[in-house]
Amino acid sequence: MKIRNQLGQQQIIWLIIGAIFLIYGVLQLGVLRLVAIILGLLIAITVHEAAHAWAANQLGDPTARYLRRISLNPLVHLDPLGTAMMAVTAITGMGIGWGKPVPVSVQRLRYGPRRGNALVALAGPTANLLAAAILGLGLRLGRALPASLLLMLGSIVYTSIVIAIFNLLPLPPLDGHSVLLGLLSLSQSRWAWQASQFIISLQRQGPMLLILLIIVPQFLGINILGWLIGPPTLFLYNALAGLGA
After folding, report:
1. Into how many domains does the chain fold?
2. Assessment of whether the complete model's pTM goes beyond 0.70
3. Mean pLDDT estimate for the chain
């Protein structure tokens, strides 16, 4: 009974937080823009995590499949706190968000734990870019569509590209960290081994470094992530959708 009460209290807290940000988002962005951002986040995160699960299963680890993570149902991929933080980020422009991590047993993966895990990690951003390319084609061919629908499609395309580029940054726990380790494992040189050991040593500090990279520059007026993510995102958005952000 005590556990049930705690779960009920947590649900009430999340509902209150969600209602506050929903009202704030509507006032700041308007209903249509807010819905477009939320829809873009939901689709991008769902496609991203489902691709990780699918790739892991294809490479020999069925853990995610057993947990029914090879799914386009957003509910199986969304982490409550991560989703709330994504909403904060979308509305305020400052923060961080995440989906529920896909469990992967790297020892089961074909091509070894480093290279196999790199392929699993790369599947997420690749799926986001593929989705952006398909929907971007829809934007190019559907200029006569209602403005509201174009806004929705544009938001999904843009958000998918942002999530892909962001996750390719070589910091743990982002996908780029695993991809970089996989690439370094292709070389037998001493410098590649030393670089791998240094990158592995950052795993514990990685999340904190990532948070500092996002939050601290905001107070200093230096948008480091904007410099890293902005140019490739705009380039790909214009290339795929042919529209300004």
Report:
1. 1
2. yes
3. 82
